[in-house]
Each structure stands twice: as C-alpha cells, then as structure tokens.
C-alpha cells in the first residue's frame, strides 16, 4: 500500500515539474525495479515493454486512427453531418443537435475524440455562430460533443481498457452504445435549454427530396459504421479486422469515389498518423512494464485488504475511483490515466462485485470528462489549434457541459443497467 502511494507521489512530482509523460511513466517503473526487484535481470523491463504491446488486439488502434485522419480530411465527416442536419436542423437550435449527432456519427467510425474535434469544429463552428449561438456555448458544444467518440464504438479508449483487463471488446462496445447515447441526449437537453434562452431558431425544414438527396450523398459515408459495427456484432470481423477494413474502406471511398484526397494527401496523413501512433505505443509499452511491477508488488491485494479492514463497500469505492480519475484527467492524457490507474483499481473493483463492463464504462466516462477538463484537457488544445481560439475562451465554454457530464457519470456509476443492459441482451 505504501509502495503504491510512493509510486503515485513520484509520478505526481514529475508531472508538476513538467516532465513528459514518457518520463512520468518510465522513471517510477525503473525506480520500482531498482528498489524492490534489483535481483531481476535488467532485460526484464524492455522484455515486458515489447511483450506487452505484442498483441494483435492493439493493431486496431493505428488502423482506426489512420481511418479517422482520412475521413476527417476527406468528405465522409462532412456528408455524415449533412445528413444529420437534413433530419434535425429544422428544430429550434437544430444546428446544435446536428453538432452532437455529427460528432456521434464521426465517432462511430473513428474512435478518436481529438480527430472528432478537428473534423467537426471546422464544419460546424461557423454554422453555430451563424444561427446566433454564443461563442462560448458554440466552442463548448463542439469540444464536449466529441467526448461521445470515446464511448461509441470503435472507441480506442475501450480497446485499451479491454487490453489491460481482458474484458470482451465486443461487450464494451455494446455498453458504449447505450452510455454514449445517454451522454449525447444529456448534451441535447442542455442545447435545447440554451436555444430557448437565447432565441436561436432552426433551419428551414428540409423537403423529402432534400432529405433523400442527403441520404444519397451520405450513402458511402453511412457504409462505414454499418461495416464496422455490423461486422463486429455479426461475428464476421474481430475488432482488429474491422479496423483494417475501416482503412481500406476509407481509402476506397475518399480516394476513388469522392476523390477528395490525392496521393500527396494520403502520404501526409499517413505521416501524421504514424507519429501519433508511435507516441501512443511508447506509452502503452511503458505502462505495461509499470503494470507488471505493480502486480509483482501485490499493490492490488494491499488495496483490497485495506478496503476490507475499513469495511469500504462498492458505493464508497466507486466514488473514490471517480474522484481519482477526475483529478488525474485534469493533468494526464487518457491512455496514461488507464495505464497508471486501471491495473491497480480493476482487481479491487472485481473483488467488490463490480461488473468489468460496468467498471469500464465508469473509466471511459471519466476519461471523456478529462479530455475537456481544464487546465490540460487534450481536446481543449485541439480545439484551440483548429479554431484559432484562446484556450481560456474554450475553457469558459465547457463548464456547463462539465456539470452535465458529472451528472451522467453519477448515473452510470450508480445505475449499472445503463452500462450493462445492451451487453446482456446481446451476449
């Protein structure tokens, strides 16, 4: 138990001192190795790093990220958004619902919140301002709506959680559908209140021919979520195979059907995606080594014994988990949060009778909240770069959505059926 506190304290000090996340994960790993397991050969650290990420499941991450970049730079994101707008744009504040629906649609084919912010922000921010949504609310809505990409399959966050804990990816994806829908609905309620308060109107109602044209324009774009989700739940694809198919589909549609990307664009996107994936996999490798030493030091067992001694039940434990993740999410990127916290907390949750899928949804909602939490939420800076807005202005816009997010987090935490209903029906 003391060792676990020491590891956390060392990581916190490194973080406050401005060290990169590679060092925040790497230095505690080496310190534990040198302090407690000096008898083990030095080669154990690189061995655990390489063996930990040498799993076919993790191949889904680079493929989904590459597909997300292709779709964000091409036409798929725009056409999905156009379809949602044709269906709901006529409602009061309809462009706000379009933003939420477009983010959920793009999230269902990308699995990446930063990619969703970048793709949706360029398209929808000017439209939100055109209909007189305030600047702050428009920024907050774009940034917060992208959170659904971390919940709706094929969520990269859920893939990482499943890899760490051994939980079924298909079951996590099924749970993510319902939890993501609840979060999107909560944001829609907030949008409706804001639209009525500020007098925002909707677009002219689309005619049947316009709706049909929007469906035709988005036909190939709609094929992507059908391919991914249909393939996974029908058993035709594993999540990794679905990720590969998403890249093939994106290249065919964007390159040869929509002709929105040329060879030079493909090369540039591949380069950006490769750099992004290199960083992610270095973090995963270091996190694997740290998790190994956490297990060797029996930190989860110490936590379980401490909870038993103080007679802490699942209600209090889950509240502590939420507080821990909320604080960590203000400073640490989502993959690192999971790599640091989940290996220690997951065995404790299971010992208290918490369903692994339910706990995964609690983790995912917390991480989604962390992506928009000041001062260092990643999506805040992505939006700032994409929309050329000061980070302080974006932070001012996300506060109402953070409050809504906390309400959804409490519901998901203490009403397990929100997370487990769909997986139970399917599996």
Automatic annotation (TrEMBL):
A Pfam family hit: DctM
Organism, as annotated: Paracoccus fistulariae
Leader peptide range in chain numbering: none
Protein keywords: Cell inner membrane, Cell membrane, Membrane, Transmembrane, Transmembrane helix, Transport
All residue ranges annotated as the TRAP C4-dicarboxylate transport system permease DctM subunit domain in the record: 11-418
Protein name per UniProt: TRAP transporter large permease protein
Subcellular compartments: Cell inner membrane
Keyword Cell membrane: yes
């Amino acid at each position: 138990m003391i060792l676990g506190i020491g590891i956390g304290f060392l990581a916190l000090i490194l973080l406050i001192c401005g060290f990169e996340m590679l060092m925040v994960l790497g230095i505690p790993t080496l310190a534990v190795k040198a302090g407690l397991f000096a008898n083990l050969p030095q080669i154990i650290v690189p061995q655990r790093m390489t063996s930990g990420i040498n799993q076919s499941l993790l191949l889904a991450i680079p493929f989904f990220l590459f597909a997300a970049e292709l779709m964000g730079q091409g036409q798929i994101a725009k056409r999905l958004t156009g379809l949602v707008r044709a269906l709901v744009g006529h409602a009061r504040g309809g462009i706000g619902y379009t933003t939420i629906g477009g983010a959920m649609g793009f999230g269902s084919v990308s699995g990446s919140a930063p990619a969703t912010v970048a793709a949706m922000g360029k398209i929808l921010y000017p439209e939100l301002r055109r209909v007189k949504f305030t600047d702050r609310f428009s920024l907050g809505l774009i940034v917060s709506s992208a959170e659904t990409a971390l919940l709706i399959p094929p969520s990269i966050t859920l893939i990482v959680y499943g890899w760490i804990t051994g939980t079924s990816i298909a079951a996590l994806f099924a749970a993510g559908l319902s939890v993501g829908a609840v979060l999107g609905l909560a944001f829609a309620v907030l949008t409706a209140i804001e639209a009525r308060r500020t007098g925002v109107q909707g677009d002219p109602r689309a005619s049947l021919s316009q709706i049909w044209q929007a469906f035709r324009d988005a036909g190939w774009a709609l094929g992507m979520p059908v391919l991914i989700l249909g393939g996974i739940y029908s058993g035709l694809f594993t999540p990794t195979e679905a990720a590969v198919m998403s890249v093939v589909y994106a290249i065919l549609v964007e390159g040869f059907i929509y002709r929105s990307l040329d060879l030079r664009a493909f090369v540039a996107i591949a380069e950006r995606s490769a750099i992004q994936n290199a960083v992610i996999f270095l973090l995963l490798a270091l996190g694997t080594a740290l998790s190994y030493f956490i297990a060797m030091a029996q930190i989860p067992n110490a936590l379980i014994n401490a909870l038993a001694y103080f007679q802490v039940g699942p209600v209090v434990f889950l509240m502590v988990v939420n507080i821990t993740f909320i604080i960590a999410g203000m400073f640490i990127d989502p993959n690192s949060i999971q790599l640091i916290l989940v290996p220690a907390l997951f065995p404790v949750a299971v010992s208290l009778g918490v369903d692994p899928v339910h706990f995964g949804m609690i983790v995912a909602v917390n991480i989604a909240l962390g992506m928009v939490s000041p001062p260092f939420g990643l999506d805040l800076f992505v939006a700032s770069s994409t929309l050329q807005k000061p980070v302080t202005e974006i932070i001012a816009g996300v506060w109402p959505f953070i409050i809504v997010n906390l309400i959804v987090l409490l519901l998901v935490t203490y009403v397990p059926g929100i997370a487990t209903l769909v997986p139970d029906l399917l599996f």
